Amino acid sequence: MIKVGIVGGTGYTGVELLRLLAQHPKVELKAITSRKEAGMPVSEMFPNLRGRVNLKFADPSEAPLKHCDVVFFATPNGIAMQQTRELLDSGVRVIDLAADFRIKDVGVWEKWYGMEHACPDLIEEAVYGLPEMNREKVKTARLVANPGCYPTAAQLGFLPLIEAGVVDVEHLIADCKSGVSGAGRKAEVHALFAEASDNFKAYGVAGHRHLPEIKQGLSLMAGKQAGLTFVPHLTPLIRGIHATLYARLTKDVDLQALFEKRYESEHFVDVMPAGSHPETRSVRSANFCRIAVHRQQEGDMVVVLSVIDNLVKGASGQAVQNMNIMFRLDEAMGLEQIPLLP
Q1: CA distances in angstroms from 150 to 3, 162, 212, 262, 313, listed in the order given
Q2: Where is the Semialdehyde dehydrogenase NAD-binding domain (predicted)?
Q3: What is the phi/psi pair of residue 107, to 5°?
Q4: Residue 131 and residue 325 in contact, taking contact as beta carbons nearer than 8 Å
């Protein structure tokens, strides 16, 4: 059994990790930390876990994290980098669901996240945990930087086009919409029911923290600097991301065949039939990315529609997928949940 610890188990990604790991056949949950809620039974905060998770939240200083095989950080940005080195030195593998190790350029990271990085030397070692790009590196990683939600949906949508070299990578557009759970489990006015319900708005148009992460991934795919216009939007949904991606074709290609071939062996990427329009509800609570590719009026513009659940394939589910790869388990183990409808 894999002994697992979770740091920061009180947020939406934390409870999603608990939901998935509690039913994983090869996992033993050893510790869940929260300074504020130390001593509280997990099921008291999250009644959906009653009878499945019998642990209490523990103070991080007292939790047996060094006795775990892997520790997940489901914490705000800036927390994992304070504790990761000590865990790695103790032989514990780390999967960070925040952004502490995603961006390789430390200066860029510090600019966008507004703080000094505590262990910049570990950034180079960290493996970016998008399995469809870096599966072989994840297998041997000690430290995995789990991708963000918008970056997951956008990169999986653009990946076949950029790898095949059939689009202009200098003028890509990602028009993305997210449910309110993407902002985390905290009290903020914009996420209040009366503010977010029956409303739709763009935000972060001048610059969003996920922009450098997406551009980094697209540039690695292309082998040169990619240009990206990224505009996120907040929608009155709890879960879900819908990414509408635009690129100009530079070569004539059978787009449907290109996407089907690229993802034919990927368990968690579903290329839908030609002409499809994937819906966020089709991936709710499941670790799937569903993709459809369109070419409008046989012109030179390709439109890719990519949908994920921001808390699963966009966060905790992908983290469990990475854990499975790191410990040489079936990649889909514990992640076969059917999406919820209605």
Answers
A1: 30, 18, 11, 21, 10
A2: 3-141
A3: -60, -40
A4: yes
Domains present along the chain, CATH in parentheses? 2-125 (3.40.50.720), 149-312 (3.30.360.10)
Residues comprising the chain, all counted: 342
Strands (DSSP E) found in the chain: 2-7, 27-33, 70-73, 93-96, 127-128, 143-145, 172-178, 201-202, 228-234, 241-248, 269-271, 289-295, 301-308
- Fill in the DSSP letter of residue 41: B
State the DSSP code for 313.
I
Q: Sort 252 into a burial class: Cβ within 10 Å, 0-12 / 13-18 / 19+.
A: exposed
| Whether pLDDT at 237 is above 80 | yes
The structure tokens listed for 282 are: 């089709």
Cα–Cα nearest to 292, from 49, 282, 284, 192? 282
Residue among 68, 149, 176, 289 flagged as catalytic: 149
Would the pLDDT of 187 be above 80?
no
The pLDDT, as a whole number, for residue 186 is 76
Report pLDDT digits (tens) over 46-60.
Answer: 999 999 999 999 998
**Phi (first) and psi of residue 270, to 5 degrees:** -110, 110
CB atoms within 10 A of CB 161: 28
Mean pLDDT of 277-293: 98
Q: What is the pLDDT of residues 158-172, one digit of tens each?
A: 999 999 999 999 999
Strands 127-128 and 143-145: parallel
Q: Is residue 193 very low, low, confident or very high in pLDDT (cuts 50, 70, 90)? A: confident
Q: Which one-letter amino acid corresponds to residue 262?
A: R
96-79-65-90 Cα dihedral, nearest 10 degrees: 80
Cβ(76)–Cβ(82) under 8 Å? no
Helices then strands (H, E): number in the chain?
A: 11, 13
Kindly list the distances between the CA atom of residue 330 and the CA atoms of 176, 266, 322, in Å, as whole numbers in the listed order: 31, 13, 11
Quick check: 150 and 232 in contact, CB under 8 A?
Answer: yes
Question: Is 289 considered catalytic here?
Answer: no
Phi–psi pair at 234, nearest 5 degrees: -100, 125
C-alpha of 51 from chain center:
28
Model's pTM, two decimal places?
Answer: 0.96
